[in-house]
Specification:
two-stranded antiparallel ribbon
Length: about 200
Amino acid sequence: MVIMLPDYPEIKKIIQTKFERLINEESKKGSFLSVIREKRIYEGDFLESTSIDGYLDKREYAEISETFSVTKEEIIEKGFDAYFEQIPEIAQKIKNSKEKQIIDKIDEVTDRVGNVINGKSKSFAENYLEVLEKMSISFDEYGFPIIPTLIVSPEFYEKSKDEISAFDEDPVMKKKFKDIIYKKKGEWLDKEDNRKLVD
């Protein structure tokens, strides 16, 4: 005698979708990942991009995955909670992997173009202004600068948080910041004008 247990594919799909969504949301908490836009790609096996200086970068997708196991006893005792209580640990591991991949890529690109500063002997304010000098800054429709997110290690933040808080109160640094933004706006307007001429 064969007993066929019922299968519920629609219910499993709903649970899996919720599980993946919760892991994705949890993995962004307290991380710079929360400000990075994501786009799902459903075909192809490599990613190709061209930088503003014409450098072609072509690479295969990198897999980020984590495994976990749940025993039959845990399922009987806890039901779906046996799966969902695993989310914080899985999300933390995925977050670590994503952050490492992105930071490694940033290191690779900045080394290639020479867009690196040695900030060991300088204050936070000096380093920050030097970083802004080296990067391209865009402006929104109202003319306000879209300042890129600054990513620092927890150790650096703890060491520099007083300097970071004092940055806006320093009139000399505020003047230098405004001068850089004024210069960057001129560069951005020139770029936009050239782009419109090409279009």
